[in-house]
Amino acid sequence: MKKHTWSGLALLLLAALMAVPAAGVLVGTETQVTTSTSSQYFPAVYGDYIVYEDNRNDIKTDIYLYDLGRGVETPVCTNPARQMLPAIWGHRIVWRDNRNGDGAVYLYDINTGAETPVCTAQQYHYNPAIWGDSIVWVDSRNEGDIYLYTIGTGTETAICTDAAEQSYPAIWEDSIVWEDHRNGNGDIYLYDLGTRTEMQITTNTARQTEPAIWDDHIVWTDYRNGKADVYLYDINTRTETAICTDPAEQWWTAIWGDRIVWMDDRNGNYDIYLYDLGTGVEAQVTGDAAYQAYPAIWGNRIVWVDYRNGMPDIYLFEIAAPTELDATVDLKPDTLRLRNKDHTITAFIELPAGADPAEIDASSCRLDSLPIVGGEPSEVGDDDGDGVPDLMVTFDLCTAVPGALDRQAILSLFRTVKVGRMFVDVAVTVSGEMNDGTPFSGEDTIRIRV
Fold first, then answer.
1. Quick one: which of 24, 122, 239, 318 has the most CB atoms within 10 Å?
2. What is the CATH number of domain 2-319?
3. Mean pLDDT across the stretch 163-183?
4. Cα(177)–Cα(71) distance, integer angstroms
5. Dihedral (C-alpha) 158, 162, 166, 172: value to the nearest 10 degrees?
6. What residue spans define the domains of the chain?
7. Sign (positive/negative) of CA torsion 266, 267, 269, 275?
């Protein structure tokens, strides 16, 4: 596998651009996963596992697996018929398989090496998706419906058999989503397995298609603006949000946690882009002039099909963990008296040049060396008058949480110092995160008197 690490220039660009919710350059490492001279398509990823279509054996594609942890590529299914559109969850891989003449759905268990037919009924069955032991797919025995197979019980269930066409199913826990044409255009629908209720998600008269789901967030490709954009629906709040409406085309969405990825042709060729719901920041993942398409994401790993070598290969981008900022911390008062039952301690937090303390997520701040919990954020100022702004955070020592100030834990420290000494100095670390998730920490020393 070939690895390419982003340059210092890319790091500087990110620092400049992450301050505002605009497209920046994502920091991380790009890796070419497949090097076969054949073609690889439609990757899916779960943890260390990447699965994809591969036509190295003939023009009919097979299913292959690459294990990032071991650096090993393994054929999953090389039946002479065509296998396509794999999906993975945990140690289970599903795909569409044409060995019976029509499209069937098959399952492979990585742990046992066992292959199992899931649905081989006549007519085409395609676009399988999996979550846990639940597999969903498009079933054409009645002209395009959504079906579910439960591995644990071996039971098949019809989820939606409306007379119109349903396609592109996705699943998360008890929630199944798909594109539905019952209203004359493609809409996104949701079925809740727990309540056995169906819900229409989108009502716009344009087409909404290719949904993906993670937890309470549904994303899809939306044509309401005359071309493909990326939209999101929050199941909890029942609100819809436009994620990307750039004048170019954006489609083939995928989601993991707060991260949404898609393919985007704003640069004249398709690139992979990412949007972080937590920070509101959009970033470009790929910058090569060739065609990059069909992204999938798991955690900090993004995979896609890449044509930079002439034939389609599978590439991987691993998002770098934010570098921790070294903070300067000044604690006041700098002496605590246990007998006086001091109620609060205040931390004044300064950050390195280029980092704004106003961007600290004050609720994330912790005093983790003393048995103290809780916190009440305050304003940005300059307590020591050095011209460097700081954030003041006040921690409550008299919180209602039991053991918030454990006197026995503090008193035990006195056993480690000279007999008769009435104080002990303790190093205290204040830590937390910026609004964009970047961690920081700093240390100060506080004196505790009995």
1. 24
2. 2.120.10.30
3. 98
4. 34
5. -50
6. 2-319, 325-449
7. negative
Q: Report the range of poorest mean pLDDT among 60-74, 338-352, 409-423.
A: 409-423
* DSSP-derived secondary structure for 92-148: EEEEEE-TTSS-EEEEEETTT--EEEEE--SS-EEEEEEETTEEEEEEGGGTSEEEE
Pair of tokens at residue 144: 């395009």
Cβ contacts of residue 313 below 8 Å, gap of 6+? 32, 33, 34, 35, 40, 305, 306, 307
The token pair that represents 341 in the structure block: 């039952």
- The closest of 442, 432, 274, 440 to 354, measured between CA atoms, is 440
Is 379 within 8 Å of 435 (Cβ atoms)? no
In the block, tokens 């209602």 appear at 400
Tell me the pTM: 0.78
What does the pLDDT look like over 18-51, one tens digit per residue?
A: 333 345 778 899 999 999 999 999 999 999 999 9
Q: Domain 325-449 classified CATH 3.30.1490?
A: no
Residues 118-132 have a mean pLDDT of 92
Instruction: Determine the 3-state secondary structure of 76 from DSSP.
Output: strand
